[in-house]
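Good morning,

Both structures are done.
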Amino acid sequence: MMLRATATRQWSPGLAFAWLILGLFILGSLFPIWIAFKTAITPLLDLYDTATSPIPTEVTASNFTRIFGLSEQQGGFNAEMKFGTAFLNSVIFTAICVTGQIAFSSLAAYAFARLRFFGRDVIFYLFISATMVPAIVLFIPNFVLIKQLGWLNTMPGLVAPFVLMTPFAVFFLRQFFLSTPSELEDAARLDGASPFRIFWSIVLPVHRGAIATLAILLTINSWNEFLWPYLVGRDESARVLSVALTNFLQQQPNGNPDWTGLMAATFLSILPIILLLVILGRRVVESLQFSGLK
């Protein structure tokens, strides 16, 4: 009887309807990505003839080779993108930003969670209140500073506003560090461990899942960052992918975009993030639920 009740509950109409709604949401989310991929593998001359078809009638890889500069332009489009350089710049930019924010934010979060000093809670809430300041307000003073330092069109200029701690990262890690069993830290203190040794050898290994989750979230934000790299990294040698895509679109003659080349570059640019979420997406959801973020 118990097995029959369980089976009935598993195949109930409500559960089937929930799976149907979930499937529709998944299809709605993946459909734009499929259209981008379909356009990317469609020959340039056949694009408008097959625009209404969800499945390409002919497949080609020439659009991908064109954005890498491995084949000649077609249809009168002479814009160049140099996808490889932009991709490498995005990888370097993302790696520096994520590494810096993880390092500095984890130190700040541990200080706010475990160390005792005068005004700790007041400083923390003032620091968190910075999330209410629109990022656009800081663009002009940051741009003036980077220009005075001579860092325009350089990687230091691109990563400078992002490489240090952020309120979100500090708050996120602090929520986990507060849950660290105090017995572990007390035992380490009895053995003569310094606060930094406790942080490095005990706290970080215990919460490596939370740190990995934060790294994923920061990777997505850094990879998709556009406005600041667009202002500071306009030179071809300093362009990241988001800026290179915009520049590629603006170079088209008579306002007629090279849609197949643009979609090929767009699909390749979002592919690393898709793979990252597919592999580690469950960890992100679990950690966000634990931290209480909505």
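Second structure follows.
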Amino acid sequence: MTTFDARADLSDLTTTAERVRRSVENVIEGKPEVVRIALTVLLAEGHLLIEDVPGVGKTMLSKALARSIDCSVRRIQFTPDLLPSDITGVSVFDQQQRDFEFKPGAIFAQIVVGDEINRASPKTQSALLESMEERQVTVDGTSYELPRPFMVIATQNPVEMEGTYPLPEAQRDRFTARVSIGYPSPEAELKMLDVHGGVSPLDDLQPVAHADDIVKLIDAVRQVHVAEPVRRYAVALVGATRNHPDLRLGASPRATLHLVRAARASAALDGREYVLPDDVQSLASAVLAHRLLPTAQAQLNRRTPEQVVTEIVQRVPVPDPAAGNGAAGWPQRPAGHPQAMPDVPRSL
């Protein structure tokens, strides 16, 4: 019988995650909160959508995270003529074997970087749906498992509309979080001129963690305890988006799962064995905003989904810490106790 040593697992997690964080920040200057969300999504077994204007480092961030981990990496440049089979793979008839042989596509990697995902047609975008949710690809009636860890990091430009196709709601809902890098501060931009002026820092970036290490960290994150009041709080936040007057489409139950998974990963990055309401609050905008559709009136009033999520976080009551009995007032699983919380379902 194996025993669960949460403190040892979390110690390894924070040490490895710190190495990855420093590696990525050698390339992305002055954006520690964006790097943290990227790490959080990776450890939550999710997928990341990076949405921002050109030239702020969207592709650089995704490449830096991918190169910091010793695992298989594929980059897909999404274009209007990209076919679904270019992503998933295709069955080719082998003349010698007199049978069809499957040729894996670009999706068969542990970290897949999709550059300018909104430039591909909706048919091609839909080729990612099964792989992102179920970690498998089905071609000609046969399913093929994808490797672990598996993460899609996609970028898109929200201001360039010519030759682009907006991501459908089903596609956006499969991304755990969306981040915007934003323009750097003058100091960070000045430092960037020194660091990036001669050669790209990506050229010297070496892996600081192995794929097997990341799998172990993901398993450790699953052990992080989420008390019932915190789970109810997450459900209340997501539920409030479904009847808000400024939204015509609220967040799905999948969003609740992603929010709890991300909160577990965030708590683990802080070295905690339990989730606090603060973890849920800090991730609410990144996890929920890209799934929401504002009403026409809200758009006329220039109300963004991020503003609505902020309002909901301020309005929904935070659970009372006195309800718990663990550290910081929240119940936590005793050391050596087996998994007390059921695994979050992988899909809906």
